Structures are given as structure tokens and as C-alpha cells.
């Protein structure tokens, strides 16, 4: 029902078409249309069935066998006694119901406990997929915005260079400038035109990436506010974030479940030598319209008892599986240790990404102010003859490069905030809604 609601809300948003979509709407569209999260959901549903399968090993098994047979007998007795023989044709049919209730099967109990771990791993795997969907939706959204910024900055830079090119041509015509100024401006104009084409191609690629998530090409998207609110992680201690991640990171939960599962597999395969005890009951009925004595039979039988089975030798299969399980246990142990280290590394990187991202945004904001002042001063210097046309072109290039870097730093900062929450196992739609507040 939840997925149907998300799909309906996505269609209603798509039909609106007037209001620009925001990050949350893009995420909802991805929830309803992304095949990766749909596959992860199906995988979780399949994993939950492991519990029922494990429980079935502890419950009785009931089987029904039935048969109907046409018989043709030709009997001739050889010997000193004159038993009658002859040809007989008759039908026979019957059925048998058997019930087996395990009383003592160590391997079955262990398999049931393993199924609980398999369900826990499936749920953790789906949580990983949900968090990754949030990150992929946010990354695709900001990539499109960043590509749009690239196109707009290239166009704005080309407009500014066009103005410089016109001015250089006019100055050359009146003799106040050399042909070099015109050629420099023309070269910069041509270069910016090529950059604009590359920016448009990049924008189309990023739009296609978002289409892969939402199954529709994005039209209008809300942009970042003029000034992004910068917030340091709380608590401002990377070790506390790492401690939370070691407790709540879903990737680590998967590795822990796999390690526990491998440990139980060792015990279960060791139990291949253990005896099994079952309660066995049978009820059967058979009827034959004839026999080799020419008379029919109608037989019914019922029995109940306890059956003991002791595996003695299976060609070395049990010992081989035991050794295999011990090797897999060591592998799972090392993978768990690696998962602990990866979580520590990912959390540290995300935390530092937020902290350094704030510093980078602040530095680029100051650099943008300085670059704007440099451009204005350079234009004034050109008017009084102390600066050249090339100086103005370079100042313009510096200004637009700084602005592009600032936009990229702001997007990186927001993504780092989400990655930090994901590392701590706390990334959900509510956290995405907080980032969505930076849009307008």
C-alpha cells in the first residue's frame, strides 16, 4: 500500500507541471520508480520467508501416497503338490498416510536459529538500500543543479566576454587599442563557447541519470537559497559519531549477522554425526479384486512408533562440510573486522567532509567577494589605461571559476551531511527534509 501511495503522489506531482520539484518530491518519485529499491524490497520479502522455512523443520511432516494398478498373473506350480494354477486379471489400489514428528534433531533446531539471523540480515540489507536511495536521489538532484549552474555560468561568462570583444573592436577601430586585444577577446569567446557546449552535454547526462531513478526527465527543480545555512555536526566529536556508527550502521549489522550465522553453521555441520529421533505414524489401506489364489483382499494397517537413526559413515561428507564451515567462519570473522574498520573510516570521512565543507564554503564566499572587487577594480584600471583587456578577461575568468567552485562546495557540504547520518545508521526521509529546507 505504501508503494502504491508513493506512486500516486508522484503522478499527481508530475501532472502539476507548474511548480518546480524539490528534493523530497524527487526522492518520492525514486521510491516509486527506482528498480534497485524495488529489487531490494523483493529481496527482503524473500529473506523473511527463511523464518517460516526454518520453523517447518520442527513441525510434523505429513505425506500421502496412493496407487491404482491393473495386474495380470500367470501361475504354474512346479513340485509334488498339485496346487492349482491359472491366469488371473484383477485391479488393486490403496493409499498410505505417514506422519513424522521430529523429537530430537539438533541440526533442525540450529537451522531454525539460523533463519532468525537470515531475516535480520535481510532487514538490515533493505535498510542499507533505503539509505543508499536517499543518497542517490540527493546526489542526482544536486548533480543536475550543478550542471545547470555550469550552463548558466558559461552563458553569463560568454555574455561578459562578448561585451569585452565588442569593446576591443571599437577601441581598435578608433585606434586606442591594438589588434591583440581583439584577438585575445575572440579566443576567449571561442573557448567559452566550447565550454558552454560541454556544460550542456553534461547537463543532459545528469538529467538522464535522474531519469534512471525516477523514470521521468526532470523539468524544473528548486535551487539552493542565496545563502546556505552552515551547521557543524552535533555532537562536535568524531569519536562519538564513530561510536554511534559501530552500534547502528546497517552494513555492520549485516556483517555481524553473517558472522553469527557462520558460527552456527560450524555447530550445525558438526551435528551431522548426531543421532536423530522421530515419532513416526502410518495408516494405510489396500484393496485387490483378485490374487493368484483367485480371491480378493481388503487390508488396513496402522502403526505408530519411535524411530532412531544414527549416521555412521557417509564417505567423509560430514567431516568435509565441517571443515568447510570452519573456513567460512574464519572468513566471516575477518569480514566483520573489515566492516568495523570500514565503518570507522566512512564515519570519519563523512564527519571531516562536513567540517571541511563548511570551511571551504566560507573561504569561497570570501573569495567570491574578493574576485568581484578585483573585476571591478580591473575594469576601472582598464578605463584609465593601467589595465589591459587581457587583465579584465582574466579577472572575469577568476570570478566565474570561484562562483562555480562555491556552488560545488555547497552541494558537497549537503551531501556530506547526509553521508554522515548514513554512516551512523540515522539517515531517513526526515533528515532529507532538513536538507530540502535549503532549497527555494
Question: Any overview of this molecule?
Answer:
With 440 residues, this protein is of the alpha+beta class. The protein folds into 2 domains: 2-57 and 105-272 and 315-436, Outer membrane efflux proteins (OEP) (Up-down Bundle); 60-104 and 276-309, Outer membrane efflux proteins (OEP) (Single Sheet), CATH 2.20.200. Helix content is 67%, strand content 14%. It contains 10 helices and 4 strands. The chain has helices at 2-16, 23-33, 35-56, 106-174, 179-214, 238-248, 250-270, 317-384, 389-423, 429-436; strands spanning 61-75, 86-104, 276-288, 297-309. A 4-stranded antiparallel sheet has the order 1-2-3-4, with no helix packed on it. β3 and β4 form a beta hairpin. α3 packs antiparallel against α4 (106-174) and α7 runs antiparallel to α8. The longest helix is centred in the first third of the chain and has 69 residues, at 106-174. The two termini are 31 Å apart. Mean pLDDT is 87; it is low at 1-17.
Provide the CATH architecture of the largest domain: Up-down Bundle
Number of domains: 2
The CATH topology assignment of the largest domain is: Outer membrane efflux proteins (OEP)
How many DSSP helices?
Answer: 10
Uncertain runs with pLDDT below 50, 5 residues or more? Answer: 1-17
Whole-Å distance between the termini? 31 Å
Largest beta sheet, briefly? 4 strands, antiparallel
Q: Give the strand tally.
A: 4
Structural class: alpha+beta
Strand content: 5-15%
Could you spell the SSE succession in H and E letters? HHHEEHHHHEEHHH
| Overall body shape | elongated
Mean pLDDT: 87
